[in-house]
Amino acid sequence: MLQKLIIQEIQLLPESIQTEVFHFLLYLKSKHLENISSQKIKRPYFGCGDVKVVIKPGFDEPLEDFKDYI
Fold first, then answer.
1. What is the pLDDT of residues 17-59, one digit of tens each?
2. How far apart are CA 10 and CA 35, in angstroms?
3. Which residues have C-beta within 8 Å of that of residue 7, sequence separation ≥ 6?
4. Cβ(51)–Cβ(43) below 8 Å
5. Cβ atoms of residues 50 and 58 within 8 Å
6. How far apart are CA 16 and CA 21, in angstroms?
7. Is the pTM of this model over 0.90?
């Protein structure tokens, strides 16, 4: 029902103002989508991970598979 009323009112306006209404509608849509996306997406930050990396002794030593090439 509301959509029909909006369309009727817009049709009564001159075309230049209809263009402004259209641009305002696009602005509102992008603003709304921006608010939704910023609420859902949590950006990672440095140190937020749970993974701990441990480098074992001998990490830098050559692998046995490549001894023929060294």
1. 999 999 999 999 888 877 666 566 677 788 777 788 888 898 8
2. 27
3. none
4. no
5. no
6. 9
7. no
